[in-house]
Request: fold
Amino acid sequence: MPQKRQNKNLAYIKTFFYPRVGDFEIYYNRSNKYFQTKVNNTVFSGDSEQAVEKQAREHLDQITKLEWKPFIIIDRNNTGDAEHDTYFSGRSALRRKHSFVLHFWRLELAVAKDPRREGTQRIERRHPEDKHGDEYWSEQDEKNWVSGVSAQKHYEADEKYVYLDYDPAIWDTLMRMAQAMARQREALDKLLGSKNLEKMLLAQREKLPALPAPKRRRRA
Reply:
Protein backbone atom coordinates (compact mmCIF):
# COMPACT_ATOMS: atom_id res chain seq x y z
CA MET A 1 0.00 0.00 0.00
CA PRO A 2 1.33 3.49 -0.77
CA GLN A 3 2.42 5.55 2.19
CA LYS A 4 0.31 8.60 3.01
CA ARG A 5 2.04 11.86 2.19
CA GLN A 6 1.47 15.12 4.01
CA ASN A 7 2.26 17.04 0.81
CA LYS A 8 -1.11 17.49 -0.85
CA ASN A 9 0.59 18.46 -4.10
CA LEU A 10 1.66 14.86 -4.65
CA ALA A 11 -0.93 12.42 -6.00
CA TYR A 12 -0.03 8.74 -5.82
CA ILE A 13 0.07 7.05 -9.25
CA LYS A 14 1.68 3.60 -8.94
CA THR A 15 4.37 1.48 -7.31
CA PHE A 16 7.06 -0.39 -9.19
CA PHE A 17 9.35 -3.09 -7.84
CA TYR A 18 13.11 -3.32 -8.32
CA PRO A 19 14.69 -6.74 -7.60
CA ARG A 20 16.60 -7.12 -4.30
CA VAL A 21 15.80 -3.51 -3.35
CA GLY A 22 12.05 -3.15 -3.01
CA ASP A 23 9.14 -0.91 -4.01
CA PHE A 24 9.30 2.65 -5.33
CA GLU A 25 6.32 4.98 -5.56
CA ILE A 26 5.57 7.30 -8.45
CA TYR A 27 3.60 10.48 -7.79
CA TYR A 28 2.15 13.25 -9.89
CA ASN A 29 3.26 16.70 -8.79
CA ARG A 30 0.20 18.91 -9.20
CA SER A 31 2.11 22.17 -8.72
CA ASN A 32 4.86 21.51 -11.26
CA LYS A 33 2.72 19.25 -13.46
CA TYR A 34 5.16 16.35 -13.81
CA PHE A 35 5.55 12.82 -12.53
CA GLN A 36 8.26 11.99 -10.03
CA THR A 37 9.84 9.29 -7.92
CA LYS A 38 12.68 9.24 -5.43
CA VAL A 39 15.64 6.89 -5.02
CA ASN A 40 17.48 7.74 -1.80
CA ASN A 41 17.99 11.51 -2.09
CA THR A 42 17.72 11.64 -5.88
CA VAL A 43 14.40 12.76 -7.40
CA PHE A 44 13.57 11.73 -10.97
CA SER A 45 10.89 13.62 -12.86
CA GLY A 46 9.31 13.45 -16.30
CA ASP A 47 6.22 14.02 -18.37
CA SER A 48 4.98 10.43 -17.89
CA GLU A 49 5.09 7.71 -15.27
CA GLN A 50 6.85 5.44 -17.79
CA ALA A 51 9.65 7.98 -18.32
CA VAL A 52 10.16 8.39 -14.57
CA GLU A 53 10.24 4.66 -13.95
CA LYS A 54 12.74 4.20 -16.79
CA GLN A 55 15.08 6.83 -15.31
CA ALA A 56 14.85 5.30 -11.85
CA ARG A 57 15.49 1.76 -13.11
CA GLU A 58 18.52 2.87 -15.14
CA HIS A 59 19.90 4.62 -12.06
CA LEU A 60 19.31 1.55 -9.91
CA ASP A 61 20.98 -0.62 -12.55
CA GLN A 62 24.12 1.47 -12.17
CA ILE A 63 24.31 1.70 -8.38
CA THR A 64 23.39 -1.95 -7.82
CA LYS A 65 25.40 -3.38 -10.71
CA LEU A 66 26.60 -6.92 -9.95
CA GLU A 67 30.05 -8.19 -10.83
CA TRP A 68 29.91 -11.97 -10.84
CA LYS A 69 32.93 -14.15 -10.14
CA PRO A 70 33.00 -17.96 -10.42
CA PHE A 71 34.17 -20.10 -7.49
CA ILE A 72 34.57 -23.71 -6.47
CA ILE A 73 33.56 -24.48 -2.88
CA ILE A 74 34.70 -27.56 -0.99
CA ASP A 75 32.93 -28.36 2.27
CA ARG A 76 35.35 -30.10 4.65
CA ASN A 77 32.78 -30.52 7.44
CA ASN A 78 32.00 -34.17 6.65
CA THR A 79 35.22 -35.22 4.93
CA GLY A 80 36.27 -37.62 7.64
CA ASP A 81 35.42 -36.80 11.23
CA ALA A 82 31.66 -37.34 11.16
CA GLU A 83 31.80 -40.54 9.11
CA HIS A 84 34.84 -42.19 10.68
CA ASP A 85 33.80 -43.72 13.98
CA THR A 86 34.50 -46.56 16.38
CA TYR A 87 31.82 -47.12 18.97
CA PHE A 88 30.08 -49.60 21.23
CA SER A 89 26.41 -50.34 20.61
CA GLY A 90 25.08 -50.57 24.15
CA ARG A 91 26.80 -53.59 25.75
CA SER A 92 27.21 -55.25 22.39
CA ALA A 93 30.21 -55.49 20.08
CA LEU A 94 32.69 -52.76 19.24
CA ARG A 95 31.60 -51.52 15.84
CA ARG A 96 33.72 -49.79 13.22
CA LYS A 97 32.40 -47.49 10.55
CA HIS A 98 34.72 -46.08 7.89
CA SER A 99 33.68 -43.74 5.11
CA PHE A 100 34.23 -40.20 3.92
CA VAL A 101 32.41 -37.54 1.95
CA LEU A 102 33.68 -35.37 -0.89
CA HIS A 103 31.25 -32.44 -0.98
CA PHE A 104 31.94 -29.72 -3.55
CA TRP A 105 30.09 -27.46 -5.96
CA ARG A 106 30.59 -24.50 -8.26
CA LEU A 107 28.71 -21.22 -8.45
CA GLU A 108 29.08 -17.52 -9.11
CA LEU A 109 29.22 -14.92 -6.34
CA ALA A 110 28.63 -11.18 -6.35
CA VAL A 111 28.49 -8.45 -3.74
CA ALA A 112 25.04 -6.86 -3.65
CA LYS A 113 24.47 -3.37 -2.28
CA ASP A 114 21.07 -2.15 -1.22
CA PRO A 115 20.98 1.63 -1.87
CA ARG A 116 18.42 2.07 0.92
CA ARG A 117 20.57 0.48 3.61
CA GLU A 118 24.18 0.44 4.76
CA GLY A 119 26.36 -2.57 4.18
CA THR A 120 26.50 -5.29 1.57
CA GLN A 121 25.84 -8.99 1.28
CA ARG A 122 27.13 -11.75 -0.94
CA ILE A 123 24.64 -13.40 -3.25
CA GLU A 124 24.98 -16.47 -5.46
CA ARG A 125 23.66 -17.78 -8.72
CA ARG A 126 24.12 -20.99 -10.68
CA HIS A 127 27.39 -21.58 -12.54
CA PRO A 128 26.95 -21.11 -16.33
CA GLU A 129 27.93 -24.70 -17.11
CA ASP A 130 25.34 -26.04 -14.68
CA LYS A 131 22.48 -23.94 -16.01
CA HIS A 132 23.15 -25.13 -19.54
CA GLY A 133 23.01 -28.71 -18.30
CA ASP A 134 19.47 -28.24 -16.96
CA GLU A 135 16.95 -29.58 -19.49
CA TYR A 136 14.17 -27.58 -17.85
CA TRP A 137 16.03 -24.26 -18.15
CA SER A 138 13.66 -21.76 -19.76
CA GLU A 139 14.00 -18.37 -21.43
CA GLN A 140 12.59 -16.77 -18.28
CA ASP A 141 15.15 -18.63 -16.16
CA GLU A 142 17.86 -17.22 -18.41
CA LYS A 143 16.54 -13.66 -18.07
CA ASN A 144 16.34 -14.00 -14.29
CA TRP A 145 19.86 -15.46 -14.20
CA VAL A 146 21.35 -12.64 -16.29
CA SER A 147 19.61 -9.88 -14.33
CA GLY A 148 20.28 -11.49 -10.95
CA VAL A 149 16.60 -11.63 -10.04
CA SER A 150 16.87 -15.33 -9.17
CA ALA A 151 20.08 -14.89 -7.13
CA GLN A 152 19.96 -15.94 -3.51
CA LYS A 153 21.81 -14.89 -0.39
CA HIS A 154 25.05 -16.82 -0.06
CA TYR A 155 25.34 -18.84 3.13
CA GLU A 156 28.89 -19.15 4.49
CA ALA A 157 28.96 -22.13 6.84
CA ASP A 158 32.24 -21.73 8.72
CA GLU A 159 36.00 -21.94 8.36
CA LYS A 160 35.67 -25.42 6.84
CA TYR A 161 34.37 -23.99 3.59
CA VAL A 162 37.28 -23.79 1.13
CA TYR A 163 36.85 -21.18 -1.63
CA LEU A 164 38.86 -21.60 -4.83
CA ASP A 165 38.83 -19.36 -7.87
CA TYR A 166 37.12 -21.35 -10.57
CA ASP A 167 39.53 -23.30 -12.76
CA PRO A 168 38.22 -25.92 -15.22
CA ALA A 169 41.27 -28.11 -14.49
CA ILE A 170 40.57 -28.05 -10.73
CA TRP A 171 36.90 -28.82 -11.33
CA ASP A 172 37.89 -31.70 -13.60
CA THR A 173 40.22 -33.03 -10.89
CA LEU A 174 37.44 -33.03 -8.29
CA MET A 175 35.06 -34.71 -10.73
CA ARG A 176 37.68 -37.40 -11.41
CA MET A 177 38.12 -37.93 -7.67
CA ALA A 178 34.35 -38.34 -7.30
CA GLN A 179 34.38 -40.81 -10.18
CA ALA A 180 37.21 -42.79 -8.56
CA MET A 181 35.27 -42.89 -5.27
CA ALA A 182 32.20 -44.18 -7.11
CA ARG A 183 34.25 -46.94 -8.69
CA GLN A 184 35.75 -47.90 -5.33
CA ARG A 185 32.25 -48.07 -3.89
CA GLU A 186 31.14 -50.30 -6.76
CA ALA A 187 34.17 -52.53 -6.24
CA LEU A 188 33.40 -52.81 -2.52
CA ASP A 189 29.78 -53.74 -3.24
CA LYS A 190 30.96 -56.39 -5.68
CA LEU A 191 33.52 -57.74 -3.22
CA LEU A 192 31.07 -58.02 -0.32
CA GLY A 193 28.52 -59.67 -2.59
CA SER A 194 30.90 -62.36 -3.90
CA LYS A 195 30.17 -66.03 -3.16
CA ASN A 196 33.70 -66.80 -1.95
CA LEU A 197 33.98 -63.70 0.25
CA GLU A 198 36.53 -65.19 2.66
CA LYS A 199 38.95 -65.98 -0.15
CA MET A 200 38.47 -62.59 -1.78
CA LEU A 201 39.06 -60.71 1.49
CA LEU A 202 42.28 -62.62 2.13
CA ALA A 203 43.42 -61.77 -1.40
CA GLN A 204 42.72 -58.11 -0.73
CA ARG A 205 44.75 -58.30 2.48
CA GLU A 206 47.97 -58.71 0.53
CA LYS A 207 47.32 -55.48 -1.37
CA LEU A 208 46.70 -53.35 1.71
CA PRO A 209 49.29 -51.67 3.98
CA ALA A 210 49.87 -53.21 7.40
CA LEU A 211 48.06 -51.75 10.38
CA PRO A 212 50.08 -49.48 12.70
CA ALA A 213 51.12 -50.88 16.06
CA PRO A 214 48.43 -50.33 18.73
CA LYS A 215 49.04 -47.43 21.06
CA ARG A 216 49.74 -48.28 24.67
CA ARG A 217 47.55 -46.66 27.29
CA ARG A 218 49.21 -44.97 30.20
CA ARG A 219 48.09 -45.87 33.64
CA ALA A 220 46.41 -43.13 35.56
